[in-house]
């Protein structure tokens, strides 16, 4: 299999025991780095996070990775038919008005956004494989779910 190196890969890491000192250096059990100001080629200055031991496997030893903060527009950050299930607290009344098939898709779409691998040739596998944004990568995505998504999954499940 040839890997498409021009495509971003999702790699979720839950950092633990994070500490940030007064000089902007941070450390966790997994990574270290420093908050810095990064100057682009055209002279623009960005606040950034320089990761000393990056999680990107393609970066060579002794090199580093820089991430910058950008404005996040939630509605543009999620894919799928029911994106609201990942960024707002759902209300029982709105869910009761939905068809059971839509509820099932809404609930499973939360998992699919994180690349959950559904049962091969099952209803959800067939549905999500037809979505251009879906990338099956993980057998378990529970550690990626936010508290809000966990709440919404439980609420949807109770109404299904």
UniProtKB/TrEMBL annotation:
Residues in YARHG domain copies: 79-160
InterPro entries for this protein: YARHG_dom (IPR025582), YARHG_sf (IPR038434)
One Pfam family named in its UniProt record: YARHG
The protein's name: YARHG domain-containing protein
Organism (species): Algibacter lectus
């Amino acid at each position: 299999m040839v890997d498409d190196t021009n495509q971003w890969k999702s790699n979720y890491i839950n950092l633990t025991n994070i500490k940030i000192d007064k000089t902007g250096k941070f450390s966790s059990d997994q990574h270290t780095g420093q908050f810095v100001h990064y100057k682009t080629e055209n002279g623009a200055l960005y606040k950034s996070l320089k990761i000393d031991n990056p999680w990107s496997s393609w970066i060579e030893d002794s090199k580093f990775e820089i991430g910058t903060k950008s404005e996040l527009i939630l509605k543009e950050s999620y894919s799928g038919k029911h994106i609201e299930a990942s960024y707002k607290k759902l209300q029982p009344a709105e869910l009761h008005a939905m068809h059971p098939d839509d509820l099932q898709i809404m609930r499973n779409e939360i998992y699919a956004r994180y690349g959950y691998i559904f049962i091969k040739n099952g209803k959800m596998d067939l549905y999500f494989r037809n979505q251009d944004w879906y990338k099956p990568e993980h057998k378990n995505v529970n550690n990626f779910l936010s508290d809000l998504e966990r709440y919404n999954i439980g609420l949807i499940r109770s109404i299904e």
